[in-house]
């Protein structure tokens, strides 16, 4: 009777415990925790039910032996072994429930494991190329450090690199060499991919971060000019004004971002209100007086009559909703999301526009015959 109740309660966590005595209830709760840990452990090891993967249970008292068949059924493993002790340095993942330790007894096919890891690294390299990097170099330390660029290294260089990044046996080091913007974007994305694969991102935590004093300018390598990283009306830090002409890369802005769990929620800045400073900022961006007047004359002229200090910030409520709903994409919290080709399926946009609407906007659509 008690064994039957134990199986039922482990399989159905919300079952009624009221008809069990306190001692039995404690055992059942412990069994439920062990069974849950067994299933998680099997998932971490990517073990299919058909594989012969014995579960080792160590410590926690002899009564655990009574539950071995139940754990075996719930965890969907081939067998459960009760062992007196378990080595602390076991290579397989270990789950701990109270005084009881669990681990999977695994016989690893080394050749197959290396092939699987090589494919995983190739996927990361392809992802890096998709972001804009030329690729990834890597150091993989299994039995000994090995790397993809060993032929270019002198004696002792590999050991120096491993020491610099504190690499140890079992580690994988990914290296990106490119312009700073490309490297940061690439390794930031790869870091998140690896963290999700390894399941090391804590759940149900909300970590906020303010980013301030951002770079005012960024260099446009295609056109060989400095452009405003935020917009040309952002107020620079007072201590950076002397660098406007001599060192644009060293100019920081009175701008800020609010970040939650790595997602930008809000962005804003203080604005320039001084006519001469605004004129100088435009000139630093390479604009002529004629361009300034044609594009922003209304604003520059208004500043001649003075303007109160002001700033602002925009809040991404859709991003906040995405995080609160634990969604993976903004499309999951958007009323009318667009698909990959920028069309919107629910309202069938883009669609045909009637001639009267086009005439109001002064737009003519002409058909061109293909030769």
Could you please describe the fold and organization of this structure?
The structure is a single chain. With 371 residues, the chain is an alpha+beta fold. The protein is 36% helix and 16% strand. The protein is built from eleven helices and 13 strands. The strands form four sheets. It has a four-stranded mixed sheet. Strands 8-11-12-13 form a four-stranded antiparallel sheet. A three-stranded antiparallel sheet has the order 6-5-7, with helices on one face. Helix 1 (2-11) packs across helix 2 and helix 2 packs across helix 3. The protein is extended and about 70 Å long.
List the main descriptive attributes of the protein structure presented here.
alpha+beta; 4-stranded mixed β-sheet
Radius of gyration: 31 Å
- Mind describing the biggest β-sheet? 4 strands, mixed
Mean pLDDT: 75
Structural class designation:
alpha+beta
Query: β content, as a range?
Result: 15-25%
Identify the quaternary structure here: single chain
**What is the β-strand count?**
13
Overall body shape = extended
Q: How many helices in DSSP terms?
A: 11
Write the layout of secondary structure elements.
Layout (H helix, E strand, L loop, with lengths): L1 H10 L10 H23 L10 E4 L9 H8 L4 E4 L10 E4 L2 E5 L5 H22 L5 E5 L3 E3 L9 H8 L7 E4 L4 H19 L9 E5 L4 E4 L4 E4 L14 H4 L8 E6 L2 E8 L4 H10 L4 H15 L7 E5 L1 H8 L30 H7 L10
Parallel strand pairs: 1-2
Antiparallel strand pairs: 1-4, 3-4, 5-6, 5-7, 8-11, 9-10, 11-12, 12-13
Helix pairs in contact: 1-2, 2-3, 4-6, 8-9
């Amino acid at each position: 009777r008690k064994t039957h109740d134990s199986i039922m309660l482990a399989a159905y966590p919300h079952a009624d415990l009221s008809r069990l005595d306190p001692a039995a209830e404690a055992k059942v709760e412990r069994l439920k925790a062990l069974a849950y840990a067994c299933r998680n452990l099997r998932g971490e090891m990517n073990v299919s039910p058909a594989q012969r993967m014995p579960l080792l249970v160590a410590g926690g008292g002899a009564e655990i032996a009574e539950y071995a068949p139940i754990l075996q059924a719930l965890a969907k493993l081939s067998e459960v072994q009760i062992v007196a002790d378990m080595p602390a340095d076991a290579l397989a993942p270990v789950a701990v429930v109270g005084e009881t330790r669990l681990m999977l007894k695994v016989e690893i096919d080394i050749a197959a494991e290396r092939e699987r890891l090589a494919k995983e690294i190739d996927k990361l390299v392809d992802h890096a190329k998709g972001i804009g990097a030329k690729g990834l170099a890597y150091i993989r330390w299994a039995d000994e450090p090995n790397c993809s660029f060993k032929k270019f290294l002198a004696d002792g260089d590999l050991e120096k690199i491993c020491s610099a990044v504190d690499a140890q046996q079992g580690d994988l080091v990914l290296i990106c060499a490119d312009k700073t913007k490309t490297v940061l974007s690439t390794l930031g994305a790869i870091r998140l991919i690896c963290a999700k694969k390894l399941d090391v991102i804590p759940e149900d935590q909300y970590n906020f971060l303010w980013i301030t004093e951002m770079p005012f300018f960024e260099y446009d390598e295609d056109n060989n000019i400095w452009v405003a990283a935020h917009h040309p009306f952002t107020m620079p830090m007072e201590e950076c004004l002397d660098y406007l002409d001599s060192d644009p890369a060293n100019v920081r802005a009175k701008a800020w971002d609010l970040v939650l769990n790595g997602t930008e929620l809000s962005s804003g800045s203080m604005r320039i209100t001084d006519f001469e400073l605004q004129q100088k900022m435009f000139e630093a961006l390479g604009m002529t007086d004629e361009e300034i007047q044609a594009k922003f004359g209304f604003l520059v002229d208004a500043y001649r009559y003075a303007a109160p200090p002001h700033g602002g910030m925009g809040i991404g409520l859709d991003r906040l909703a995405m995080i609160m709903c634990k969604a993976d994409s903004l499309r999951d919290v958007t009323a009318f999301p667009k698909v990959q080709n920028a069309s919107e399926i629910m309202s069938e946009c883009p669609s045909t526009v009637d001639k009267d609407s086009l005439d109001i906007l002064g737009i003519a659509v002409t058909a061109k015959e293909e030769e």
